[in-house]
Amino acid sequence: MNKIALLLISLVSAGLTGNVFAVDKDRTLSATMPQGIIVVAEEGILEPRSAGSYSLQLYAKNDPTYPYDQFITGLVRPRNGALAEIKFADLTRDGQAEIIVITRYTGSGAFVTVDAFSVKKKSVHLLTSIAGMDAKKDVLKALKNKLNSGR
């Protein structure tokens, strides 16, 4: 009985004095690629909403009850603003969709950063990025133009 009481006191004390952080669901985006891969983009948990980093994680198509059981790969990128959207498009015209992650700058929200990622087998890499883009412009067109120009 004394062991249980000590355990409860320890747990309560840890909760009162330790660092406990709640997960903010607004910091996570999830979408499924046409080929069935689940893509998760998540802002750094302890970072401000206005800047920091985000992680990109890919999971294999799996039992719908456990969609995040088969991690494939991932990476971390700098972030200016809050995660806004994940899109998919065949930017390279190779028949495979690329991942597009859009972050919206804080303040007026008039600008975005657009990152495009290529997925090959069990790896993901940054294809191109456009920072400070007018949020009203067509991100897919801008990415295609940048890739075609070789910049």
Describe this structure in words.
There is one protein chain. The protein has two helices and eight strands; from the N terminus they run H-E-E-E-E-E-E-E-E-H. About 12% of the residues have low confidence. A four-stranded antiparallel beta sheet has the order 1-2-3-4, with no helix packed on it. It has a four-stranded antiparallel beta sheet with strand order 5-6-7-8, covered by helices on one side. By secondary structure, it is of the alpha+beta class. The protein has one domain: Periplasmic lysozyme inhibitor of I-type lysozyme (Lipocalin, Beta Barrel), CATH 2.40.128.460.
Properties at a glance:
single chain, 151 residues, alpha+beta, Lipocalin, four-stranded antiparallel sheet
Q: Strands of the biggest beta sheet: in what spatial order?
A: 1-2-3-4
Question: In whole angstroms, how far apart are the ends?
Answer: 69 Å
Q: Give a count of the beta strands, DSSP E runs of length 2 or more.
A: 8
Assess the beta-strand content as a share of residues: 35-45%
Largest sheet: 4 strands, antiparallel
Secondary structure class reads alpha+beta
